[in-house]
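Researcher: Here's a chain I'd like modeled. Treat it as a single chain, no partners, no ligands.
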Amino acid sequence: MITYLRNVLILLTFIIPNSSFAQENKPSESNLIYINKFVKDLNNTNIATDVILSQYITITNELTDEYFEYLQVSLDEVRLNIQMKDISQIQYINYFQLPKKETRDIDLEGKNANNIYFLKIKDRLVVALYLDAGKIASFTLVSKGDNLAHFVTY
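Model: Modeled as a single isolated chain. Structure tokens:
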């Protein structure tokens, strides 16, 4: 009986931390709803890009005309990429749902990985998003050298 209880306790020590880990790293339903709405609005040609920028993107840097134009052109590129796809085929994948080999070259730089999503179609990346404070803080994942990439926040 003592051996049985000991085995149960050992098993629980493995199960309990893993279940709480899984809950901590579970994608936020509200983030997924927000990203889905963002994709639908990008796909809607009746909504101007500057409206999408102001509604969905967090801009913390000083917003000069040149910087706003850069963001608008960058978002237009993402928009065109999405409009050329069947958006019903887009997979919304959280950072923790990807195999480690696909994320090991991303430097989180202290960002919450629960708020990082990869939008893919047939295993091809459409866009990577980082959310912060309920809005998109970055749709730009770029190389920072040393075989690492990072999200550029605006």
